[in-house]
Write a structure and sequence with these properties.
The protein contains 3 helices and 39 strands. β38 and β39 form a beta hairpin. The protein is globular, with a radius of gyration of 25 Å. The chain starts with a helix and ends with a strand.
C-alpha cells in the first residue's frame, strides 16, 4: 500500500510538472516580449525594427506583442491583422498636485517622426487589439493621427482599450469608413484635431472613455468632403457622416470646438454621457436622421463662443431625432476660471426639424437667454414639456454674478 501511494504521488507530480511546462510554452508562444526582439524602451533608441519583427512573429503565432514598462520610440508603422499590442501603462489624468510624475503611464509608444497618416496605421486590417498603452504623438508631422483604420467592404472589429492617446497633430483616433469597432476605457486628450474622428465610420461602440482638451471636438464627423480631398477618395468614402455608433457613459469636456459635432449622421445613440464645459456646443447635430440623445448630463457648454455656438444642444435640419430625459445646467457660479459673460446662451436650439421630439428635459439654469430656442421651420415635431428655469443673472462690466433664489 505504501509503495502504491508513493507511485500515485510520483505520477501526480509528473503530471503537474508536464502541465506547467506546457502552460509556460504556450505563454512563450503567445506573449512576445518586444525587448526579446531588440527594443530598448529608453525613449531615445529607434525601436521600430524591433516592433516590426515582433509583430511579424505575432502573425505567425497568433500572438501578443507585450511591452514591459518603458518608452518605445518608433516611426509610423502598419499593424497587421489578428495580433494584440499589449502594455500595462496604468496612466492617470494630470499632475495637478505635483505628486505624480508617472501620471501619463509607464508604457509609451512615442513618435520619432510624423510623415504618415497615423503612428499606428491599421488600414484595412482586422481583428486587432491595442490595449493598455500610452500613445504619444510628440507633435510630429502634419495631421498625423494616433490610430487610423479604413476598411474595404468588410467588418474589421478592431478594439482599442485602456489607452491614453495624446499630442498628435491630427486626431487621437481616426476611423474613416471603418466598420465595426470598439473604443473602451480610453483617454484621448491634447490632440490638435479631434479626440475621435468618425467621418465615414460606422457600427461601433465608444464606452467609458474620456475625450478632453482636444483642439477640435471630442467626437466628430465632418459630413462633407474635406477641402482638397481627391475625387477618387470622395467616391470611395460613399458618405461623410457616421452611423450606428453607441456613445455610452463617456466624459466629453473642455474641447475647443465643442463636445460632439456630427453632420450627415444617422442611427446614433448618445446615452448616459457627461458633456461638460466645451468651448462650443455640447452636442451639435446637422443634416442627420434617426438619432437618440437621452439621459445625458449636459453642463456649462458654449464657453468663449458667441451666437448659436454658445449653446448646450443644437439641432438643425434633422429628421426623426429624439432629445429626451437629459439634464442641462449652466453652472453659472463655477469658480475655476474667469467668466466674463453668462454662457451658455441657449439650452437647446431647434431649427428645420421634421419628425423630431424634444421633450421631458430638465433645464434648471440651463441657459441665460432661452431654454428651447425655436428658430422655425419645424414640422411634424413635438417640442414641449421641458422644465426650463431661467437663471437670475446680474451683469456688470467685466463679468456677471448669479443671484441665488
Amino acid at each position: 500500500m505504501k509503495l502504491r501511494s508513493i507511485y500515485f504521488v510520483l505520477i501526480f507530480n509528473l503530471m503537474i510538472f508536464a502541465h506547467a511546462n506546457m502552460w509556460a510554452q504556450q505563454q512563450e508562444n503567445t506573449y512576445l516580449n518586444i525587448k526579446s526582439y531588440g527594443a530598448k524602451g529608453d525613449g531615445i533608441s529607434d525601436d521600430t525594427p524591433a516592433l516590426l519583427k515582433a509583430m511579424e512573429a505575432a502573425t505567425q503565432s497568433e500572438g501578443t506583442v507585450y511591452f514591459p514598462h518603458g518608452n518605445y520610440a518608433i516611426h509610423p508603422v502598419q499593424v497587421p491583422s489578428h495580433i494584440t499590442l499589449l502594455g500595462h501603462s496604468a496612466w492617470a489624468y494630470e499632475n495637478k498636485d505635483k505628486r505624480d510624475e508617472d501620471f501619463e503611464g509607464k508604457t509609451f509608444l512615442s513618435a520619432l517622426s510624423g510623415d504618415a497618416r497615423a503612428l499606428l496605421d491599421l488600414g484595412n486590417n482586422r481583428g486587432i487589439r491595442i490595449l493598455g498603452l500610452t500613445i504619444n504623438g510628440n507633435h510630429q508631422g502634419k495631421r498625423m493621427h494616433g490610430i487610423y483604420a479604413r476598411h474595404s467592404q468588410c467588418e474589421q472589429y478592431n478594439c482599442i482599450e485602456d489607452c491614453r492617446i495624446q499630442h498628435f497633430t491630427g486626431s487621437g483616433i481616426r476611423l474613416e469608413r471603418s466598420w465595426v469597432f470598439s473604443i473602451r476605457r480610453c483617454l484621448l486628450m491634447f490632440n490638435d484635431e479631434h479626440g475621435v474622428d468618425l467621418t465615414g465610420g460606422y457600427d461601433g461602440w465608444i464606452i467609458d472613455t474620456q475625450l478632453t482638451a482636444n483642439k477640435g471636438a471630442g467626437l466628430f464627423a465632418r459630413g462633407e468632403a474635406r477641402e482638397g480631398m481627391a475625387e477618387d477618395q470622395i467616391k470611395d468614402l460613399k458618405f461623410f457622416g457616421t452611423a450606428s455608433v453607441m456613445v455610452t457613459a463617456n466624459r466629453i469636456e473642455w474641447n475647443k470646438e465643442g463636445g460632439i459635432l456630427l453632420k450627415g449622421s444617422n442611427s446614433m445613440q448618445i446615452t448616459g454621457c457627461s458633456i461638460d464645459h466645451n468651448f462650443g456646443p455640447g452636442i451639435r447635430m446637422v443634416n442627420s436622421i434617426g438619432n437618440t440623445i437621452t439621459g445625458n448630463m449636459v453642463r456649462s457648454n458654449g464657453a468663449q463662443k458667441q451666437g448659436d455656438w454658445c449653446s448646450q444642444i443644437w439641432l438643425e435640419n434633422c429628421k426623426g431625432t429624439s432629445v429626451t430625459g437629459n439634464s442641462l445646467w449652466g453652472w453659472y457660479n463655477r469658480k475655476e476660471g474667469s467668466f466674463t459673460y453668462p454662457f451658455p446662451y441657449y439650452g437647446i436650439i431647434a431649427k428645420d426639424l421634421n419628425g423630431c421630439v424634444i421633450s421631458q428635459n430638465a433645464m434648471y439654469h440651463s441657459s441665460s437667454k432661452e431654454g428651447v430656442s425655436d428658430r422655425g421651420g419645424n414640422k411634424n415635431s413635438i417640442i414641449t414639456q421641458n422644465a426650463y428655469v431661467k437663471p437670475n443673472i446680474k451683469q456688470f462690466e467685466g463679468g456677471f454674478s448669479l443671484v441665488e433664489e
